[in-house]
Amino acid sequence: MTSRHDIPIIDFSLFETKKVTCAQQIKEASVSIGFLYLRNHGIDQSDIDNIFVVSQEYFSLPTETKLEHRIKRDNFGYSALHQETLDPETQNTGDFKEAFNFGKFVGGNCSQELPATLAQHKDFLAKFSRICHNLCLKILEAFAIALEIPETEGGKGWFTERHLYELESGDILRVLHYPAVKSIDHDDMRAGSHSDYGSLTLLFQKDVGGLEVLSGDDQWISAPVIPGCVLVNIGDLLEYWSGGLFRSTKHRVVFRHDNLLLDRYSVAYFCHAADDVSLEPIPSRLVVGRMEVNSSDGRVLTAGQHLRNRLDASYKY
Ligand SMILES: O=C(O)CCC(=O)C(=O)O
Ligand SMILES: [Fe+2]
């Protein structure tokens, strides 16, 4: 049994043999803490190792070179040190991190022009983006199964058909680098407290910890690096869409005395519903009755509008 303090580790190979049991486990974690680790997730370790190699090569470029592809309102490109402030209400300075956001690679081409260092890895990046998205689709299928969406409404394909890779959406593959520092001001943060914006996020961590998750009773708990596991979390879109059944949990990345001298790298895949999907109630008996929360002002947002609102609140472009 897990408590609201634990981030459960779920063996995803069970999804091949005992779909409903595995789907239930994933739903339980998504409802209780909004975070879970997946073991046996099907992504080759060599691909995960390689994305970190590409990321480190990119971040070692001079800042001026990276700034040539600075992030814009489309949410693609390079976000410099201190540019993003994930928790503007409490942070005096922006996050102590830099990142690069890739849009989807439909037809093998990236949604944006890539810097030369990354362009040479375009085929691998396109493959990795797809691999991550495919895992997200399987998790979304598990949600539909656990929510018992009736066959007449689309059954286990209800979420997946709203998240197809070919559709325009806010999906982002993101590489992150948190530089080592010699000392810190006490309120410096690697990434301020925030929740993610989309349906769900995959997070790959490597070697250096520091990620913390706000548990049900307002305690920050550690989400350590667990070799062989990918961390999955629910985003705001799914919390909103499920009338609060699924939890989009706040998390942050802190400096700790044992890690501030170390560079930290992570990779995230943010999976979103297609921009024009209207966020009508999910046709599930577990969600019906919660949705008056969302429809109280009579307007139904689309996934694209929901994302725009969230992005505008946290970036200085
Ligand atoms: O780097 C990490 O471990 C977390 C990053 C994160 O939460 C984000 O980019 O949304
Ligand atoms: Fe996040």
Automatic annotation (TrEMBL):
Residues 169-273 form the Fe2OG dioxygenase domain. InterPro entries: DIOX_N (IPR026992), IPNS-like_FE2OG_OXY (IPR044861), IPNS-like_sf (IPR027443), Iron_ascorbate_oxido_reductase (IPR050231), Oxoglu/Fe-dep_dioxygenase_dom (IPR005123). PROSITE patterns: FE2OG_OXY. Transmembrane segments: none annotated. It comes from the Eukaryota. One of its GO terms (molecular function) is oxidoreductase activity. SUPFAM superfamilies: Clavaminate synthase-like. The keyword Metal-binding applies. Keywords: Iron, Metal-binding, Oxidoreductase. Gene3D superfamilies: B-lactam Antibiotic, Isopenicillin N Synthase, Chain. Pfam families: 2OG-FeII_Oxy, DIOX_N. PANTHER family: 2-OXOGLUTARATE (2OG) AND FE(II)-DEPENDENT OXYGENASE SUPERFAMILY PROTEIN-RELATED. Belongs to the iron/ascorbate-dependent oxidoreductase family. This is 7879_t:CDS:1.
